[in-house]
Amino acid sequence: MFIQAEDKEYNRAEDAQNDALANWDAVTQALKDSGIAFEDLTDSQRLKLTQLEVQGGLNEGTSAFVLQAIDQEKEVFTKTYSPDKTQLIVSYKDGTTDVFETGFIPEPEDSDDVKITDATRVSNANTTIQQKQGSDKKIAWETYVDMARDWISQGGTVGDLRVAFPPETLMNEGNLKLLPSSLRPKLTNDDDNLF
Question: CA-to-CA distance for 39 and 58, rounded, in angstroms?
């Protein structure tokens, strides 16, 4: 009984944190959409936004940074966080993606917690590729974006994903062109005419 009550309390706290983060996302998106800068907010509005960041598990000051860093000329498609909330991944409707460090320092993990290893991430990505590849053994750019989201949510980095699963080996040229720029392979001078 005690464990169940403890689990319920943990779930309520986690739900409250997720709700605060969702509210923070909605407010920062509305501010971005209306072109209002953090500096233009009243003291009361800044305080409320700061409360939402802290309740959502982010560091104080994240709002000011995010509102300045997100490209004001582009329409945001999604904002997601790494599981440890150390990164904010912003995908724009034009297909580009930005990754921002939030400055959040996660609490040390309990040794009893299940940890996602590199092998688990690789296995999950391989399964996705096998399930989604076409008859030409290639995947669509959307599948690679989904793989990147999963990879990051499991504690990996975009750079590690590109090394483990180079997009140029998994996609045809047409899909490579549609891939968000942060996921595309780095071009060398010899590759300049790929895009």
Answer: 19
pTM above 0.90, yes or no: no
- Render pLDDT for 81-140 as a digit per residue (tens, 0 to 9): 777 777 778 777 888 888 877 666 666 555 444 456 677 788 888 888 889 988 998 999
- Name the residue among 126, 185, 176 with its Cα closest to residue 150: 126
151: which 2 tokens?
């990879």
- The rounded distance, in Å, linking the Cα atoms of 3 and 9 is 10
**What is the token pair recorded at 182?**
């942060």
Alpha-helical regions (H) of 35-180: 43-55, 62-69, 118-132, 141-153, 158-164, 167-170, 173-178
Upper half-sphere CA count for residue 136 (Cβ side, 13 Å): 9
- Residue type, position 194, single letter: L
- What value, to the nearest 5°, has the Cα angle with vertex 123 and ends 135 and 149? 85
First to last CA, the chain: 61
Sort 160 into a burial class: Cβ within 10 Å, 0-12 / 13-18 / 19+.
middle
Neighbours of 75 (CB within 10 A): 10
Distance CA(80)–CA(121), nearest Å, equals 18
Domain spans of the chain, in order of start: 2-73, 118-194
- Cα–Cα distance between 192 and 195 in angstroms, integer? 7
Q: Of 142, 152, 136, which is closest to residue 80 (Cα–Cα)?
A: 152
